[in-house]
């Protein structure tokens, strides 16, 4: 299981876990369910996008860095 799958499954399970609170007629419980459910969903989506954006930057190979530097110097000319 990759990190993306684990994050997605975790987000879905916890989001579904808090959705029964949305069935409550007691307003504070409904609000907590809405707030936590939405926060978990948004957190999961942003985590996946952050991994997609920053993984190539963090886990780069030295060969890639050299080719990136060559590309930058060619563009700068």
List keywords for this structure.
mainly alpha, 0% strand, 77 residues
> What order do the helices and strands follow?
HHH
Question: Tell me, what's the shape?
Answer: elongated
The largest pleated sheet is described as:
none
Distance between the ends: 45 Å
Helix content: over 70%
Mean pLDDT, to the nearest integer, reads 83
Query: How much of the polypeptide forms β-strand, as a percent range?
Result: under 5%
Coarse structural class: mainly alpha
From the structure provided, what is the oligomeric state, counting identical versus distinct chains?
A: single chain
| Rg computed from alpha carbons, rounded to a whole number of angstroms | 21 Å
Number of strands: 0
User: How many H/I helices?
Assistant: 3
Break the fold down into its secondary structure elements and pairings.
Layout: H1 3-18, H2 27-58, H3 62-76
Helix pairs in contact: 1-2
Structure description:
The protein has 77 residues and is mostly helical. It has helices at 3-18, 27-58, 62-76. Helix 1 (3-18) runs antiparallel to helix 2 (27-58). It is elongated, with a radius of gyration of 21 Å.
Task: Write a short abstract of this structure.
This protein has 77 residues and is mainly alpha-helical. The chain is built from 3 helices and no strands.
């Amino acid at each position: 299981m990759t990190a993306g799958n684990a994050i997605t499954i975790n987000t879905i399970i916890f989001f579904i876990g808090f959705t029964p609170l949305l069935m409550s007629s007691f307003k504070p419980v409904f609000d907590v369910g809405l707030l936590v459910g939405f926060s978990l969903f948004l957190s999961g989506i942003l985590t996946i996008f952050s991994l997609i954006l920053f993984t190539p930057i963090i886990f780069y190979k030295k060969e890639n860095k050299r080719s990136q530097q060559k590309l930058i110097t060619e563009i700068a000319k």
